[in-house]
Write a structure and sequence with these properties.
Elements: H1 2-35, H2 40-64, H3 75-84, H4 94-113, H5 129-139, H6 143-158, H7 162-178, H8 184-190, H9 197-227, E1 238-239, H10 269-275, H11 280-293, H12 301-306, E2 322-325, E3 332-335, H13 342-360, H14 374-388, H15 391-396, H16 407-421, H17 424-439, H18 448-460, E4 462-463, H19 479-482, H20 488-507, H21 529-540, H22 547-555, H23 563-583
Parallel strand pairs: 1-4
Antiparallel strand pairs: 2-3
Helix pairs in contact: 1-2, 2-4, 4-7, 5-6, 9-23, 11-13, 13-14, 13-21, 14-20, 16-23, 17-18, 17-20, 20-21, 20-23, 21-22
The structure holds seleno-captopril (SLC) and zinc ion.
Length: about 600
């Protein structure tokens, strides 16, 4: 009878889950060994481990799909079976599986080891993305140096990945078909468990776009003031190399010469961190202390012993920051080539947020040890970082001196947050709209680059510093395209982190709507056990329930919305509208001279 079948099903799935945990542990260990020491030998070992494990997964899958789990009464049991009946890339035959692995590891190794020559010293050709090229983009205000560095990087990391990327698209789409998806776009979107995910992304963008256009217009004017109208036009897109970041995804590095009230002291803590002899370890210890202050879990001993938090000088590693769950309940690591600056202080909290999520859901079945949706995992650390970057908290830890919070300082603070959080959204949206089109076959390889720039101009209002052709492949000059990491998760994160932050601030008594002594912009939930407990309760759920249930536990809302972000930035939005009115700056951008496609 059904009762007995369900009981047998539960026995089966629990032992499958334990076996799967072991497989995940072995796979992660091999991946760590490769990305922490990029050699041909370690790549071959990693691929061999993955092939062996995928054969075991295929055998288990043959048995799992025999169960009539759709008829089971128990919701959690049905949810476990539903997840385990999706085999993933292991559905590919071994030879194609290996080819897919090699095309991705080839792109990722190329990205991680790419070197370019210095603009100032053409014989120095050992510049890596981290820390060298990142430092140039953070500090240089020489348009020629920035242009040259931009062009070299996009050739070394982008164009060189084109062949591997084309093969990866074909093989990954074959895997999608074997998992009953039309293409990888549908597969990626299925992770969010809502039927209208792509429509929701578009709606959220239409909610935020008016604010973005105002900020874009203001920044374009300030850049034109600085670099002149031969480089920065009055009504066109902004050249992408002038925004302080290789991908123009965050514009914090141009804050010093574009902030609204320049006579008000700059709130850039990089200087203070260096003056106070901050180290990478101190940055991680401060982040750990913040999570502990919320009554959340301290980083375990293995974290401090096994993590790599500084770039080694004796081998090549994947420097792009990452957090690792070894699925044994005690080994959790971060790998990061940390520099002592504001941007990495935020990234440290971002990565520590991933590990805190691992710690909170470590007693879930292995199949539920993931974010409620991929955006949740990216939002945890950033939500904490919203408190850390508040003037109140920076004063608390001595990174800024006492500054009366007057109206102008507050606008500067919101501007600093806005050129990080608002400008990121159209970038993130572009990256996966582009890849959706590629996976769906709407964008053919001969159109990869023109479609990429068409989207970047349309959504982000930026343009390349020099003309591009199909010899280039600029999308792969971004880590996540070369490393096969889905990106809509960050778009979701940069919206829901404000819903989380608002809820936590209210729980901490730090934010009271309409009470001007308790403003959202100055909220710091540090040491609030009430906020920490609520966050912990949501994180403990992992992916055991659909994400609206998890969001409701913390925020009372069941949908991702832009209202948290718009409420946080409302004073800035008002100020930008008035300022752009005053200067008569054109809002928006006309299509640039070159027709891309
Ligand atoms: C820090 C990480 C590792 Se999950 C990252 O890739 N982030 C964090 C913010 C956006 C995105 C990026 O750097 O592009
Ligand atoms: Zn992340």
């Amino acid at each position: 009878d059904l009762e007995a079948l369900e009981h047998e099903g539960r026995e089966y799935i629990m032992q499958l889950d334990v076996a799967t945990g072991m497989r995940k542990h072995l796979a992660i260990l091999a991946e760590w060994e490769y990305t922490a020491n990029i050699t041909k030998e370690n790549e071959d070992k990693w691929i061999q481990v993955r092939v062996d494990l995928s054969q075991q997964e295929k055998r288990a899958w043959e048995e799992t799909k025999m169960y009539r789990w759709q008829d089971f009464q128990d919701f959690t049991l049905r949810r476990m079976f539903k997840k385990y009946t999706q085999l993933g890339v292991s559905a590919l035959p071994d030879d194609k599986y290996k080819m897919l692995m090699r095309s991705v590891s080839g792109m990722e190794a190329n990205y991680a080891t790419a070197k370019i020559c210095s603009y100032k010293n053409a014989s120095k050709c050992d510049l890596a993305l981290e820390p060298d090229i990142t430092e140039i983009f953070a500090t240089s205000q020489d348009p020629e140096e920035l242009k040259d560095t931009w062009v070299q990087w996009h050739k070394a990391a982008g164009a060189r990945a084109r062949a591997n990327f084309t093969e990866y698209v074909n093989l990954y789409n074959e895997a999608a078909h074997l998992n009953n998806f039309k293409d990888v776009a549908e597969w990626w979107q299925s992770e969010y468990e809502v039927p209208d995910f792509e429509e929701q992304l578009a709606k959220l963008w239409s909610d935020v776009k008016p604010l973005y256009e105002q900020l874009h217009a203001y920044v374009r004017k300030r850049l034109r003031d600085k670099y002149g109208d031969q480089i920065v036009s009055a009504r066109g897109p902004i050249p992408a190399h002038l925004l302080g970041n290789m991908w123009a995804q965050t514009w914090n590095n141009i804050e010093s010469f574009t902030r609204p009230y320049p006579d008000k002291k700059e709130v850039d803590i990089t200087q203070s961190m260096k003056e106070q002899n901050y180290t990478a370890l101190k940055m991680f210890q401060m982040s750990d202390e913040f999570f502990r202050s919320l009554n959340l879990t301290a980083m375990p001993e293995k974290f401090w012993n096994n993590s790599i938090i500084e770039k080694p000088n004796d081998r090549e590693i994947v420097c792009h920051a990452s957090a690792w769950d070894f699925f044994d309940g005690e080994d959790f690591r971060i790998k990061m080539c940390t520099s002592v600056n504001r941007e990495h202080f935020r990234t440290v909290h971002h990565e520590m947020g991933h590990v805190q999520y691992y710690l909170q859901y470590k007693n879930q079945p292995f199949v539920f040890r993931e974010g409620a949706n991929p955006g949740f995992h990216e939002a945890v650390g950033d939500t904490i970082a919203l408190s850390v970057s508040s003037p109140k908290h920076l004063r608390r830890v001595g990174l800024t001196q006492g500054e009366a919070e007057d109206e102008q300082t507050e606008i500067n603070q919101l501007y600093k947050m806005g050129i990080d959080k608002i400008v990121f959204l159209p970038f993130a949206y572009t990256l996966d709209l582009f890849r959706y089109g590629v996976f769906r076959g709407k964008t053919a390889p001969e159109d990869y680059n023109c479609h990429y720039w068409k989207l970047r101009e349309e959504l982000q209002g930026v343009e390349p510093p020099v003309n591009r052709t199909e010899e280039d492949f600029d999308a792969a000059a971004k880590y996540h395209v070369s490393a096969n990491v889905e990106y809509a998760r960050y778009y979701v994160s940069f919206l829901i982190q404000f819903q989380f932050h608002r809820a936590l601030c209210q729980l901490a008594g730090e934010y009271v709507p309409e009470d001007f002594t308790k403003k959202l912009v100055d909220c710091d939930i540090f040491e609030s056990v009430a906020a920490g407990n609520a966050l912990g309760n949501m994180l403990k759920m992992g992916s055991s329930k659909p994400w609206p249930d998890a969001m409701e536990v913390l925020t009372g809302q069941r949908a991702m919305k832009a209202d948290g972000l718009l409420e946080y930035f409302r004073p800035l939005h008002d100020w930008l509208k008035a300022e752009n009115q005053r200067t008569g700056e054109f809002i928006g951008w006309e299509s640039s001279k070159t027709q891309y496609c």
